[in-house]
């Protein structure tokens, strides 16, 4: 299992390897991809071309490793997911210990897995092209200049023989490489000539003037503080006077505003009272409605009872009429019976007695 190199170290190393491989690739007739910034693959670039740049760079390194050129050239026309899948297969076939990447890490086009894969492919390409690293052999004069300048930048103290002995214990090549790297990054420019010692005189004069400068700075700071305090006091007094003027000018408006606030409070109280009265009226109306409903129910019951009484009265009247008719019929029947009896009785004989009677 391969060790994980820190991301900044990996990108620094990858940048140097790609710079060295560009010349070898051009000599072999293999076109290099467009150059990108040093830490381009370390973090997200915020565009959609980062994944395409990663695929192009990895395909170029695989060509330098000896993989089939025609198959890798097809990556330029494939969509990014398919090209990435083909690229991962080629990288696993090329590297003895490919980096372990979680699913989706390489699809982002940046990050630790992307930088590690490119670094391993670049190392494999350099081995394929038989690159050999050589330590630089700088001149002693430039080493001494770099030592003096770096010591001045770090300590800002005079350079002594003891410091020189301590600095000579470090690797001359490593020190010069660090100086070159800082110079390339624009942190400083190494412009000292051999035997130039004017900076020591400037440093001595600067140290002599340091106490005077500190005293002047302290006096200037005290004067600034005094002026600032006086200015603050004047501004505060002016603000207070302006506040008094505003209070005097706005006093009638404030009194009117207070009266309006009191009137508003009275209106609010009156509104609350009216709302309470309205609520009570609503409750009373609800009670009246309930009573009306009850009265309606009672009225319906009475109406039904009245309707029943009227029907009974009509029945009684009808019965009375029937009784009258029955009485008339009985009288009529009696008359008929009497008439029938009179018709059925024998005729009476006329006797003198009877006549006399």
Automatic annotation (TrEMBL):
Residues 254-312 form a coiled coil. One of its GO terms (biological process) is intraciliary transport. Keywords: Cell projection, Cilium, Coiled coil. Pfam families: IFT57 (PF10498). GO terms for cellular component: cilium; Golgi apparatus; intraciliary transport particle B; microtubule organizing center. It is found in: Cell projection, Cilium. This is Uncharacterized protein. It comes from Symbiochloris irregularis.
